[in-house]
Amino acid sequence: EVQLQAYGGGLVQPGGSLRLSCAASGFPFSKWPMSWLRQAPGKGPEWLSAIDSTGEHSTYAASVKGRFTISRDNDAKLVYLQMESLKPEDTAVYFCGRALNPYTYGGEAAGGYNSWGQGTQVTVSS
Question: For residue 38, what are the CA distances in angstroms to 6, 29, 103, 106, 115?
Fold first, then answer.
């Protein structure tokens, strides 16, 4: 069974930092492009970042570029999102996503990835 468990969220002040992690299981992690998505209450999912299977190429949404960094550890089957200079508008539930197939990058939209689990809540507030 494919599992993607995101964790590491919490309360943080504006301008602060936070590192999210996603533990993958149930599939050959090192062959799959991965991503981070988020969803605020009452809104659709928003694509944030993606990384190819080797970790050599990554892309970012304009809203987080320069502040967030995606990385992965294929041996540990983990993908990370380092979040810096957090803003109140970053408040959302954050999910780890897997590309729809192992042969393509996945693109730069939420529809290019599937997510599992409940995600992890990030709240940015004074």
Answer: 11, 21, 24, 16, 10
Cβ–Cβ under 8 Å, residues 90 and 122? yes
Contact present, 121 and 20 (Cβ < 8 Å): no
Closest to 67 in 3D by CA, of 14, 123, 5 = 14
Q: What dihedral angle (degrees, nearest 10) is formed by the CA atoms of 7, 13, 14, 15?
A: -80
100: left (phi over 0), alpha (psi -120 to 50) or beta: alpha
Task: Look up residue 32 and give its DSSP letter.
Answer: S
What would the pLDDT profile of 31-50 be if each residue is shown by its tens digit? 999 999 999 999 999 999 99
